[in-house]
């Protein structure tokens, strides 16, 4: 991407990171709904051209150069509000709403900067839908990767309770970790549950693919790279025997590097619809 676009994406990333740190950072235990209200007021100030610090000012600069809408930013703050009060999600629809707010919004924030291919003649809604899907898929992957950490350190269970019930799994089993007393391996119920969750996440990644090659040519490679790397975390969970209680799935740096040429080729094979 051009330096101007890189700076704009960086400004959005930093704002999102600061927002996430409010509820997941070292001072998270002191964050109140009122603090998030003040953060939203500060956001309004940024969009009014009244930054508080230099980092806010970089986002102001982005807003002056690209037609970025405030609503996804507001929605992300609403996602942080959910984290303060909602440690469980009964249905996938509830989880979908959360994932949209904390991650799908990032795709919507970034789209005005990345832009569509100059030869794209289709409905731009398709591209926005794909950007949204990529954010959702990434967040679903985060949730599956971090089940143990979220349960043990935060008493949070993000995977839908209705899905746990379907596979005969209780909340308490998730909180303590599901290992077979006789073998020490992950319980078969959890393996079946995780296979279902991973398949659903992969389908959302597939939905995201539909729009990546409609992006502007200088955005396609980085987006394909991000999609491929994140999707491979699902492979890593499988390679760990579906043990996401005390093993963190990740993609090694060497493997990430080796994936870049493949992602580049995908970006070059763009076919406009």
Task: Walk me through the structure.
It is a single chain. The protein has 273 residues and is mainly alpha-helical. The chain has one domain (3-268): Farnesyl Diphosphate Synthase. It contains twelve helices and no strands. It has helices spanning 3-24, 33-47, 54-65, 71-85, 92-114, 124-145, 147-154, 161-166, 171-176, 188-212, 217-239, 253-268. 32% of the residues are buried. Its EC number is 2.5.1.32. It catalyses: 2 (2E,6E,10E)-geranylgeranyl diphosphate = 15-cis-phytoene + 2 diphosphate. InterPro entries: Isoprenoid_synthase_dom_sf (IPR008949), Squ/phyt_synthse (IPR002060), Squalene/phytoene_synthase_CS (IPR019845), Trans_IPPS_bact-type (IPR044843), Trans_IPPS_HH (IPR033904).
Mean pLDDT across the residues is: 93
**Radius of gyration (Å):** 20 Å
- Indicate the proportion of strand residues: under 5%
Spatial shape: globular
Total discrete domains = 1
> Regarding CATH, which class?
Mainly Alpha
Structural class: mainly alpha
CATH-wise, what's the superfamily? Farnesyl Diphosphate Synthase
Low-confidence stretches: none
Put simply, the count of helices is: 12
Helix content: over 70%
Terminal CA distance reads 23 Å
Secondary-structure arrangement, i.e. CATH architecture: Orthogonal Bundle
């Amino acid at each position: 991407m051009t330096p101007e676009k890189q700076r704009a994406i960086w400004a959005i990333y930093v704002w999102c990171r600061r927002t996430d740190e409010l509820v997941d950072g070292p001072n998270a235990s002191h964050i109140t709904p009122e603090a998030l209200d003040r953060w939203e007021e500060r956001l309004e100030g940024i969009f009014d051209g009244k930054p508080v610090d230099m980092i806010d000012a970089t986002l102001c600069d982005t807003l002056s150069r690209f037609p970025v809408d405030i609503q996804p930013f507001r929605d992300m703050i609403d996602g942080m509000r959910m984290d303060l009060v909602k440690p469980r999600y009964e249905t996938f629809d509830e989880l979908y709403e959360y994932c949209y707010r904390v991650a799908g919004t990032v795709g919507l924030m970034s789209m005005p900067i990345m832009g569509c291919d100059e030869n794209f003649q289709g409905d731009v809604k398709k591209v926005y839908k794909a950007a949204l899907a990529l954010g959702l898929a990434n967040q679903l992957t985060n949730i599956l990767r971090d089940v143990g950490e979220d349960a043990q350190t935060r008493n949070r269970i993000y995977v839908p309770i209705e899905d746990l019930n379907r596979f005969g799994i209780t909340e308490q089993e998730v909180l303590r970790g599901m290992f077979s007393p006789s073998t020490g391996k992950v319980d078969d119920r959890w393996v079946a549950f995780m296979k279902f969750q991973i398949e659903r996440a992969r389908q959302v990644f597939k939905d995201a693919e539909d729009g990546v090659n409609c992006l502007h040519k200088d955005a396609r490679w980085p987006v394909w790279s991000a999609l491929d790397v994140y999707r491979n975390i699902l492979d890593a969970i499988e390679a760990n025997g579906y043990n996401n209680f005390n093993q963190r799935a990740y993609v090694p740096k060497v493997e990430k590097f080796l994936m870049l040429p493949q992602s580049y080729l995908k970006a070059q094979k763009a076919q406009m619809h």
